[in-house]
Amino acid sequence: MSKSDLIQPDHGQDAIAIHLVNKDSFEDWSKSLSAGQRAALAAQKFDGSGYQVGIVPDGDGWFAVGGVADPEELSSWCMAKLAEVLPEGTYRRAEGNPGPAVHGWLTAQYSFEKYTKPENPVGPRILLSKEVKAIGPALSEAHAVCEVRRMVDTPAEDMGPAALESECEKLAKTYDAKLQVTKGDTLEQEYPMVHAVGRAADRKHAPRIMHLTWGKEGDPKIAIVGKGVAFDSGGLDVKSAVGMKLMKKDMGGAAHAIALAGLIMEAGLPVRLHLLVPAVENAISSNSFRPGDVLKTRKGLTVEIGNTDAEGRLILGDALTRASEEEPELIIDFATLTGAARVALGPDLPALMTRRDETAEALIEAGKACDDEPWRLPLPEAYREWLKSDIADMNNAHGNAYAGASVAGLFLDRFVGEDIEWAHFDTFAWRPFAKPGRPKGGDAYGLRASWHMLQRRYSAG
């Protein structure tokens, strides 16, 4: 059963009722129950706390009750635990429509089964809603999140640069978009930093950059850019075994960009879209780029390599330069760029950097409204000097341990065209601990915030 079957229009068909309560309302609500029903909930230690699930016998059948923070104002995740633990069946919220909780209901039923099958599979939990017009957009959004998860969860051998190219090809075919793929000698000439970072990989994982264009020429131009480092060994500044363990997720920025482009095209947003995905493997071989090398760039700047493990900003530099050449009014990039962002904000909050206050405010407001809040970090002018080089225009890594995420953002800023509105997400793309509706593994952070902001800005109708 596909995701599209998990939420269906409510036409009064048979369904199991779900009641949502919190600790404050539970006592009054339970007064309408029989003594036996109250005893059943007491035996399950149900008191209305968040994410609790109770099963209540009711004649020959039963109904469910879920604990939430506020039954009057649901969040994306209020019904996610219910979707994870209830038996297969069809359900409806007893006191009204599920509203935004549809998202968690859908994403809670994601599972990554490419290489194994669950021992005790559970059938689909279907939720009914009378908000029929909201079903399609909710399905699209949940599908985009699950696509990010799928791509990030897939190991690097099966989600290398060629596989990322295939993901872009699927988008182009689905939405009648134009896709240009640059690799080989042309890549070396036109995108020298992308080539340099990826040249050590074998032919199967050879570097490339994908450039997808869609939409009417006269519509506002926007560019979405995603870091596609399919695996990051660290290069010659090799990572530790622990540091390398999760590096299949280093293409998480590309996954976000591809998913966001899909949402834009599916909704028919009135924009001229440019999607750019530089895709490489940062491998180790006799022709790896080296610490101390000076690389040419598409923009014409020269970059001294202070650290080969700061490679994501290099490939993004060339991609942002190309995006800027289209003179878009807005560029959004996604990248699993720095450990410093994770130290500062933890795994759940994507770091957001923007040139303009209004850009940050729009993204933060949209993120709060859909439970995908980013957290803004600064781009301090005072730290630009930390990227100075004695022999090149700039260095790719600063020599101290301070403000790593912001300094990486300042590096990228050099490659974004002057006066272009720009937002940079430094996202983890990984959930180390499961939460209701959000299993451990690959995950999307900042995707929904960006999508809701774009919808508000360009009105999908």
UniProtKB/TrEMBL annotation:
GO terms for molecular function: manganese ion binding; metalloaminopeptidase activity. Transmembrane segments: none annotated. GO terms for cellular component: cytoplasm. Signal peptide: none annotated. It holds the Pfam family Peptidase_M17. One of its GO terms (biological process) is proteolysis. It comes from the Bacteria. Keywords: Aminopeptidase, Hydrolase, Manganese, Protease. InterPro entries: Leucine_aapep/pepB, Macro_dom-like, Peptidase_M17_C, Peptidase_M17_N_1. This is Leucyl aminopeptidase. It comes from Erythrobacter litoralis (strain HTCC2594). The lineage of its organism: Bacteria, Pseudomonadati, Pseudomonadota, Alphaproteobacteria, Sphingomonadales.
